[in-house]
Amino acid sequence: MGNYRRRLDIIADILQVVSQTAKKTQIMYQANLSYKVMQRYLRDITNASLICFDNAERCYVITQKGRDFLDDYKDYTKTNKSIEKRLNDIDSKKKNLEELCSNK
C-alpha cells in the first residue's frame, strides 16, 4: 500500500522549496507534485498568505507567516514522531502481556 502525504505535509514541502524562492517548475518537481495538484496548492497557500508571487523576479517567495508555519510544522512532526514511538512501545508491551496470559 502506498504511503500518501497529508495536506500539511504537502504544504510544508512546497514551503520548503519556496523558502529559497522558486518558479512553478521547481516547486512541481522538488515537491513531487503533478501540475494540477501544484496549481491548487499554490492558489490555497497564496490565499492563506504563506507565500506570494514576486512579479519582478517572476518566482514565488515565502512570507513570514509561511516561515512561522514551517517552524510550527517541524515542531509538530518531531512531537508526532515521539508520540508514535511511545504508542508503538505501548502496543508492543500490550502484545507481550497478552501472549503471557494466553494458554498457548
Helices, strands, pairings?
Elements (H helix, E strand, L loop, with lengths): L6 H12 L5 H7 L4 H13 L3 E4 L4 E4 L1 H38 L3
Antiparallel strand pairs: 1-2
Please describe what this structure looks like.
With 104 residues, the chain is mostly helical. It has one domain: Winged helix-like DNA-binding domain superfamily/Winged helix DNA-binding domain (Arc Repressor Mutant, subunit A), CATH 1.10.10.10. 67% of the residues lie in helices and 8% in strands. The chain has helices spanning 7-18, 24-30, 35-47, 64-101; strands at 51-54, 59-62. It has a two-stranded antiparallel ribbon. Helix 1 packs across helix 4 (64-101). The chain is elongated, with a radius of gyration of 20 Å.
Structure described in brief:
67% of the residues lie in helices and 8% in strands. It is mostly helical and 104 residues long. Helix 1 packs across helix 2.
Count of DSSP strands: 2
Count of separate DSSP helical elements:
4
What gross morphology would you assign? elongated
CATH fold-level assignment: Arc Repressor Mutant, subunit A
Strand content: 5-15%
Structural class by helix and strand composition: mainly alpha
Helix content: 55-70%
CATH class term: Mainly Alpha
Alpha-carbon distance between the termini?
Answer: 32 Å
Backbone CA Rg: 20 Å
CATH architecture: Orthogonal Bundle
Count of the separate structural domains: 1
Order of strands, widest sheet: 1-2
Order of helices and strands: HHHEEH
